Amino acid sequence: MGRSRVLQLTILLLVALAREAAGQEPATPIPVLNDEDRAVAFPHVDGHATHDRMVYSFLLFDQLEWRTGNGEQTIGWNAMGWIGSDVHRLWFRTEGESDEKRLREAEGHVLYGRAFSRWWDVVTGVRQDVRPGSPQTWGAVGIQGLAPYFFEVHATAYVGASWRTQARIEAEYEMLITNRLILQPRAEFNLVGKSDPERGVGSGLSNAEAGLRLRYEFRREIAPYLGVNWTRKFGETADFATRAGEKTRETQLVFGIRLWF
Fold first, then answer.
1. Residue 91 belongs to some domain of the structure
2. Whole-number Å distance between alpha carbons of 48 and 194
3. What confidence score (pLDDT) does residue 198 get?
4. Strands 151-159 and 136-147, bridge-based pairing
5. Dist. CA 13–CA 223, nearest whole Å
6. Which CATH number goes with the domain that contains 245?
7. 158 CB contacts (<8 Å, ≥6 apart)?
8. Do the Cβ atoms of 229 and 207 come closer than 8 Å?
């Protein structure tokens, strides 16, 4: 018997079995669907659940470090965090420096931020200066986000008492030498609209700070680092510092740890 004949008989047998099975009643009859069954299988949904309505939080100590240079030793910090959704967030920032005797500089921000594009937020709120000088409160408005080529940028304008104005521009970049070894250049520029002798701040470009930090991430959340930090005062601010017996330029070695939660 040829192969074609065997194949034909097999197909005919399968067709016969299928027809016979179709004519038999099931051992347990299938109940007829009712409205309750349909409601359970297809519940009513008011809307699609989306992740942008969830509340998240983030806290980063970008700098928590010991600084040494020019015969002085200080402790510095720079931290930021937020709580909110992908679109609306409450931001806070704080930075400062202290030696073993006193708190030299300290300030904090509380800002509302709203995303207006994929990589950028507009922020508005208040800044509180604690040191130097007497406490002072500023209104703040600015933008922050990720510029082309992955530069992280913060640009903020401030208005204080007697219509004093300031502006600050910060930028940093992360260069991956390996997946765990990262070099981070950072720069900050402060501009002042009106001189404030009490705080030793002059109009124009007041001061600038630049740093270079090399960190190793044992884990993404914990990364010790070392680096160098440069600061310089300009114009009237440098004149105020000179008259007060302070340095107008400083170079410091830094050792610290970067943490985020």
1. yes
2. 53
3. 83
4. antiparallel
5. 72
6. 2.40.160.40
7. 127, 138, 139, 140, 165, 166, 167, 168
8. no
Distance CA 143, CA 146 (A): 10
**Which domain does 97 fall in, by range?**
56-260
Residue 45 belongs to a domain? no
Q: Residue 132: what pLDDT?
A: 81
Residue tagged 């910060």 (tokens):
170
Tell how far CA 41 is from the center of its chain.
43
Task: Report the distance separating Cα 211 and Cα 226, nearest Å.
Answer: 11
Length of the chain: 261
pTM of the model as a whole: 0.78
What domain count does the chain have?
1
Q: Going from the first residue of the chain to its last (261 residues), give the mean pLDDT of each consecutive group of 10, the final group possibly shorter.
A: 58 62 58 70 62 84 93 92 94 93 92 95 97 90 95 97 94 96 97 90 95 96 96 94 90 96 89
Between CA 113 and CA 130 the distance in angstroms is 23
> What is the SS3 assignment for 228?
strand
Whether residue 44 lies inside any domain: the answer is no
Q: Is 10 inside a domain boundary?
A: no
Q: Quickly tell me which residue has 């005062």 as its tokens.
A: 233
Q: What is the CA radius of gyration of the chain?
A: 33
Q: What is the pLDDT of residue 99?
A: 87
pLDDT at res. 70:
79
Beta strands in the chain (DSSP E): 56-69, 72-84, 88-98, 103-115, 120-131, 136-147, 151-159, 165-172, 175-176, 181-192, 204-216, 222-233, 249-260
